[in-house]
Amino acid sequence: MSERQETITSEIACPHCGQAVAFTPAAATQWLKCPHCGGEFAVPAADGSFPVIDDAEPPREEISDLSENALSAIRIRQIAAGRRATYRARSYCIIAAGACAVATVQLVWMIVQQYRAAGWGLQCTGYALFALLGVQGVFYFAVRAARLHREGKQSSLTEYTHEPDFSALDNGSKRVQNLEDVR
Fold it and tell me: Which DSSP string corresponds to 124-158?
């Protein structure tokens, strides 16, 4: 008796365009390229495991096959994604500092209203404590936003601590000699 091996195919929606992409489940996580939009994405292994994979970075075995320009392009995308994340976090901190400032002003206004109506009491004390917490939130988020701003403005290039050693380089005469040896 001969048994026929059937390949089981599955479909998954492309995260870029939403179209169905057919694939054969494998023992490990694999990268697929959508035939509709050309977007690349990872699909889980047949057993359902799905290790964390950086979407901006192709699998390690593909990196060795990439040219220097492609590696530079990948690095540029990583740097750009990191900067966008830094600026996004800075924006969130600015919004949070603004929200804390507005809440603090409202609490101070509520303290004034309560004090005028019934004098200083437990309610005014509670408002004052929350107002102090709001002031602390304003300073915390403002300092955090300033740090993220400085981080976003930093150069991604590494600073060299020592001068490069050019003594091993020659003036090019060796290449000419190698070309003459080929003849």
Answer: HHHHHHHHHHHHHHHHHHHHHHHHHHHHHHS-SSP
8 Å CB contact between 74 and 82: no
Torsion of CA 154, 157, 163, 169, to 10 degrees: -170
Q: How far apart are CA 53 and CA 155, in angstroms?
A: 26
Q: pLDDT value at position 1? A: 44
Domain boundaries, the chain: 10-53, 83-153
Between CA 53 and CA 127 the distance in angstroms is 47
pLDDT for 2 equals: 46
Residues with Cβ < 8 Å from 145, sequence gap 6 or more?
90, 93, 94, 97
The runs of H, that is alpha helices, within 7-121 are 60-63, 68-118
CATH number of this structure's domain 10-53, picked from the four choices 3.30.450, 2.20.28, 3.10.20, 3.30.70? 2.20.28
139: left (phi over 0), alpha (psi -120 to 50) or beta: alpha
Q: What are phi and psi of 42, to 5 degrees?
A: -100, 145
Q: Average pLDDT across each block of 10 residues of the chain; the chain has 183 residues. List them in order.
A: 59 80 79 82 71 52 58 79 91 96 96 92 94 96 94 77 73 67 65
